Each structure stands twice: as structure tokens, then as C-alpha cells.
Amino acid sequence: MPERIAVIGCGQFGTVLACHAARGGHAVVLWGRTDDEVDPLQRDRTSPRIEGLTLPQTLEVTRDARRAMDGADLVLTAIPAQYARSVWKVLVADCPPTAIVVSVAKGFEMGSMLRPTEVLAEIGVGGERVALSGPTIATEVARGLPTALIAAGRPAAAQRVQRALTSDAWRIYCSTDQVGVEAAGAIKNVIALAAGMIDGMDLGMNAKATLLARGLAEISRLGIAMGGSRDTFFGIAGMGDLATTCFSADGRNRTFGEKIGRGESCESALRSMVSVVEGVDTCKVVAQLAARYQVEMPIAQAVHSVLFDAVDPRLALQVLMRRTSGEERI
Questions:
Q1: CB neighbour class for 148 (10 Å; exposed up to 12, middle 13-18, buried from 19)
Q2: What's the order of all strands across the beta sheet hosting 4-8?
Q3: 81/282 Cα distance (integer angstroms)
Q4: Are 171 and 207 part of one and the same domain?
Q5: How far apart are the first and last CA of the chain?
Q6: Helices 313-321/298-308 angle, 10° precision
Q7: Which CATH number goes with the domain that contains 158?
Q8: Are residues 311 and 239 in the same domain?
């Protein structure tokens, strides 16, 4: 049954998400905050950020939040984690109280250390809240290439999201482990930064494979300590999303890490990126969460030292390689 869907945020993934929903036969409105974001989408029906993407004629694009969310059954929010609170404080009154709000953000809020759905709940956005996560490189989604995702929340709400967004290209599973799904999506961005550094230093696939295995151990340890289910971290939202982010040439966090590995400073690399690199702020929060839950995370700590203490990535690697090793432990 067709739904009325609002997509909030017309960055790369917000735009392809809106296109996907519109091609599924739903009535979809895409909201953007500025004329610079909205005008090209309205005028040319193409996205300057995603080569080759043409917006369906049925997809409406607007800066009017009230118009976008009027009567919406599902509100899909693609606002990065660090900006969600400020944006939604303005928009909350326009969101129907009965709408299922679906977050696709992958990060933790600085300061509060809250997950995206927790921020939305604290503001009081909509009714039920669902996290949607998985391997979703925007350029591949735009081309209609297949992927699988996890809709995490209370069963009835997650199943409604599943029915609305499932297609020949999107296979969606449901989960009640919202903590695990959101934790996996956030923490993997820190490991992706390290993967990019490995690429930038030309250390090869053996090193990257080792990073993924030990990185997943760190993700799962912290995620489980936060209340997530172990199985989540070895599934689509965990291992699946981690692999995509670490290997894709289009992955923003991997690309940023590669710049660092080639010798750029954190500040210089950030200035050169056209989209938000959520792993940078997430790295700060992950270090705080690791301390709170007393979880050992040597890779995440090494990334933190490179980004914020100006440690040379090769020295950080050397420190990791010289750690005492024993039995492998997940």
C-alpha cells in the first residue's frame, strides 16, 4: 500500500533515499534547508553530488518543511548526527505526531553521546522511531545496485518501514536491537578512517583484512557493553556495513582516512571534503564511551591520537603492532 513519505535532508543519501521511495510508488517529498541545496534538484532534476542520478518526476522537492511533512506516514531523516538536534528543534512542530520517524544517520551526538533515535526521542519528534542501517554507499544506491538493510525498532513500526522500502534492489530485515544497529553504524566509521589510513600508506590488503577483523572485535565489544546484541555486529548492520565502508572508493570516511595516511592534516583533509565525515566527531565520542564502559579499543584510540594529537599514522601503527599479543579474542 503506498505511503506518504517525507525525506528530511537532501545530501547524497537523503536524495537517493527519496528517489528510491518515489520509484516504489509512494508519494514522496524531499526537504532541503537552503536554496543552494534545493534549486539544482528542482531546476535540473539532477543532483550535483551524484553523477548520473535523475530525480523521478513524481518526487517533489521543497524548502517548506510543513509542506514536506503534511500528512506524512513515514518521515525519513537523513540529517547528520551532529546537526540533527538543531535542525529538528526547528522542524519538530511540522512533523505529524503519528508519523513513524526513520533515522539513517550513523554517528553519536557530541556532548550527550546519544544515538540518533535517542536525540529524536528527546526532542519529541513523531511517534515511533526506527533506525535504518546497512551497506548503503550512495553512488551504488543511485545506480539501483542491490543491497540489504536492517530496520530496527518496535516490530510493527519496523515492519511498516520494511514493507514501504523493500524492492528488487533493497532487501530489508527487521530487528528489535536498535542499540546494536545504531552503535554498529556509528563505530564502524572510526574503523573506516583507519582503513583509509592503511590505503594512504600503501600497506596492502593483508593489513586491511586484519584491521577489519580486529576492528569488528572493538565495535562489538563496545556495542555489547552499550546494550546491543552480539549477533547484530556480525550481520548486515555490523560486518556488512563495515566491509562496504572500508573498501569502497566512494566511502567518505575511508577517503578522508586515505588523505591522512598520505600526509594531510586533519584540518586540511576536512576542508577538502564536500560531504560530512561523521567518523571524525564520532571518534571523539567513541573514546568517551570506551572510557565510560571500560572497553579496550586500541584501534579506535590510535585513530583518535592521529586525528586529535597529531601523531604520525605510521607511528600509531607501530604502537599497535608492538602490543602484546595472546589468544585471539572477540
A1: middle
A2: 60-62, 27-31, 4-8, 74-77, 100-103, 129-133, 147-152, 170-175
A3: 9
A4: no
A5: 43
A6: 160
A7: 3.40.50.720
A8: yes
Cβ 151 vs Cβ 235: under 8 Å: no
Return the pLDDT at 324: 79
- Residue 309, judged by CB atoms within 10 A of its CB (0-12, 13-18, 19+), counts as exposed
Per the structure, the count of domains in the chain is 2
Catalytic residue among 106, 188, 208, 259: 188
Catalytic: 188?
yes
The pTM assigned to this predicted structure is: 0.95
- All three cell numbers of 275: 560531504
Grid cell, residue 95, equals: 512533523
Cell digits for 150? 536492517
Q: Which of 139, 154, 176 is the last residue of a domain?
A: 176
> What's residue 51's pLDDT?
86
Give just the sign of the alpha carbon dihedral 131, 285, 209, 199. Answer: positive
What pLDDT is stored for residue 274 in this prediction?
A: 79
Q: Is 74 helix (H, G, I), strand (E, B) or coil?
A: strand
Set of cell numbers at residue 284: 571523539
What's residue 215's pLDDT?
Answer: 97
What are the grid coordinates assigned to 270, written together? 576536512
Number of C-beta neighbours around residue 275 at 10 A: 14
The residue out of 152, 176, 200 marking a domain boundary is 176
Residue 312 is assigned to a structural domain of this protein: yes
Considering the domain architecture, whether residues 199 and 252 belong to the same structural domain is answered as yes
- pLDDT tens-digit profile of 79-119? 999 999 999 999 999 999 999 999 999 999 999 999 999 99
11 within some domain: yes
Identify whether residues 88 and 218 lie together within a single domain: no
CA nearest to 101, candidates 74, 81, 79, 122: 74
Contact 31, 9 (CB under 8 A): yes
Give me the domain span that covers residue 273.
186-321
Residues of the chain below pLDDT 50? none
For every residue of 75-87, DSSP letters joined together read EEE---TTTHHHH
- The span from the CA of 295 to the CA of 52, in Å, is 44
Q: How far is residue 49's CA from residue 253's CA, in Å, rounded to a whole number?
A: 16
